[in-house]
Amino acid sequence: MVRKPIASGNFYPGTKAILEEELGKYIEFSAIKKKVVDKILRLDPEGLMNTVAMERISMCGAAPTAIMLSAALELGVKKAEVIDYTNSGRVMGDYNRVVAYLSMIVY
User: Fold this and answer.
1) CB 29 within 8 A of CB 95
2) Which of 10, 73, 91, 93 has its Cβ near the most Cβ atoms within 10 Å?
3) Range list of H helices, 1-107
4) What pLDDT, in 10s, does the model give residues 38-96?
5) In whole angstroms, what is the distance from residue 97 CA to residue 79 CA?
6) What is the DSSP letter of 25?
7) What DSSP state is assigned to residue 59?
């Protein structure tokens, strides 16, 4: 269970949080996008943690991301947007097993 934090204030006018995260190492690009990014876009911290645990996704900052989402929800966020989503396949040419990176803004 993700507990609700006590939080207040804005980081930037109208913005509650900015997330930059390494999503996982050496797992399929499509698996990460479908199972992790969608949970973050839905502002679902508990779903994120459950997905990471059940699917054994090696997301370095799963707990901090869930905590940030919980705090942002307490601050009244309504939306999340992807700023950039990339992976090591863009450099290495192998899209089957990648390290993926995500930048998002929640507001």
Assistant:
1) yes
2) 73
3) 29-32, 38-41, 45-54, 62-74, 89-92
4) 999 999 999 999 999 998 888 888 899 999 999 889 888 899 988 888 888 888 888 87
5) 30
6) E
7) -
Q: 98: which 2 tokens? A: 């990648």
Q: Is the pTM of this model over 0.85?
A: no
**Can you say whether the dihedral through the CA atoms of 30, 32, 33, 35 is positive or negative?**
positive
Residues with Cβ within 8 Å of 69's Cβ and at least 6 positions away in sequence, in order, are: 2, 40, 43, 44, 45, 48, 106
SS3 content of the chain, % helix, strand, coil (to 5): 35, 30, 35
Q: Which of 48, 67, 65 is nearest to 57 (CA)?
A: 48
Contact in structure between 106 and 80 (CB atoms under 8 Å): yes
